[in-house]
Description:
By secondary structure, the chain is an alpha/beta fold.
Amino acid sequence: MMLSDYTFQNPWLLLGLLVVPILAYWYFAKLRKRKLTIPLPGIGEVKQTRSIRSLLSNVLPVLSLLGIASLIIGLARPQLALKEEEVKAEGIDIMMVMDLSSSMLAQDFAPDRLSVSKAMAEEFVDKRPYDRVGLVVFAGESFTQCPLTVDHKIVKDFLASLQCGLLEDGTAIGMGLASAVNRLRESKAKSKIVILLTDGSNNSGYIKPMTAAEIAKELGVKVYTIGIGSSGTARAPIGRRPDGSYVYGMTRVQIDEELLNEMSKQTGARYFRATTSAQLEQIYAYIDQLEKTEIEVNVYKRYEEKYRPFVLFGIISLLLQWLLGHTVLRQLP
């Protein structure tokens, strides 16, 4: 248990603990005065020894001080605060749509666009403890990597395992969005959103992006789009070797910002452009603030008395001190 979990019914009695160091000082000052320093001739250098009884006699004041301190703490009534929370949350259903086309390996982000996108998406998921989250991926085609779930560890595991080359290459933005909207179609959540991240222009698939956006609007789904990629040119895959590895070269960054902006506006959401890792982090943080989950938390507290061990220890210490002081450790005046 943490010390912060404890509270005292009579905290002002703890001021009595100030007496303990005063009593300790008084005892040891008195002990020094009782020491005799009478010079004895003719004994030379004799090694001083102390009996076990004399050593144990120092235990008596320690027992007294511990007993007094324990009784004072016990009288202050220490209690353990046990807190219970009842959480009622109107969660938001969120589908994350991630581009896995080969251009996501472009190195204008360190180490590449995909790695940064996955890391930022995982941080976003961590901030949504009461929401259901799902994952759709797309390239030249699309599929649902993870359906809506409250098990965020599974979502993060799927995010971590994403890599380019799993799908036929291309950029089927419309297919990706349509797959995500289809997953939200039966959702009973008060709010439903899609976060679609891509670095290119739609060039594959049999569903047009605006058609998918219109379907999203009809179903009350907001579509936040993110265009990722620096301005100008970037070092990115331009081909593949027979062994499947990528050949890199400088290519122009081409993002259909007009399309992405129109898709978001159609559904009452926003389009964002991320040219650096810091900007992408800020975008996810901004979306997190825009789409807040309504949470009602009722806190119940109950207290468990903890004074008995202190009182018992104090009484035992004082009784033991009295018993030893009047028997085996008795000192003659």
